[in-house]
Amino acid sequence: MELPTSPCGAYGVQVLIAGRQKHWRDEVSSQIRRAGFAATTVDCGVDAMTVLALGLPVDVLVTDVSLQGKLCCLKLAQEARALRPDLRIVFASDLGLQPDEDASDPIDTLFDGDLPRHARAGLLAVRRIDHVASTVWDALRSAS
Fold it and tell me: Which InterPro entries does the UniProt entry name for this protein (predicted)?
């Protein structure tokens, strides 16, 4: 008899959350935990890459599109994919909570240009942080 195996390892679903604003990270990690996933939060792309490079279990990376620094949102996604080609990545925006913000949406530019179609598998974007957990579910299903 073959025992069923978890698609995300012995530790359950592990979600790495990278965002520069503490309140953003807290809100997203709260959603992730309520959905039954384990969450690890970091405040910059360099720390996120350290977690990945150390080989800690991570099934989905959730990154704030406003992440800045040496490893901004898109660069973090590229480097993370280079290290772990099957990693699912969710780009999250706080747009729904910023009514006076300019109409330019950073998510609209994420999938334009240089990213080949085959490299887009497992990449999802969500415009409102209150939908992150459901988008993580979608990312996990898209890899099956």
Answer: CheY-like_superfamily (IPR011006)
pLDDT digits (tens, 9 = 90+) for 9-45: 445 899 999 999 999 999 999 999 999 999 999 999 9
Amino acid identity at 134: S
Range of the domain at 100: 14-142
3-class SS shares of the chain: helix, strand, coil, % to 5:
40, 15, 40
The CATH number for 42's domain is: 3.40.50.2300
Q: State the distance between the two ends of the chain, measured CA to CA, in whole angstroms.
A: 23
C-beta neighbour count of 117 within 10 angstroms = 7
**pTM listed for this prediction:** 0.77
- Output the CA angle 34-39-40, nearest 5 degrees: 155
Q: Is residue 67 a part of any domain in this protein?
A: yes
pLDDT digits (tens, 9 = 90+) for 76-106: 998 999 999 999 999 887 755 444 444 444 4
CA nearest to 58, candidates 13, 18, 28: 13
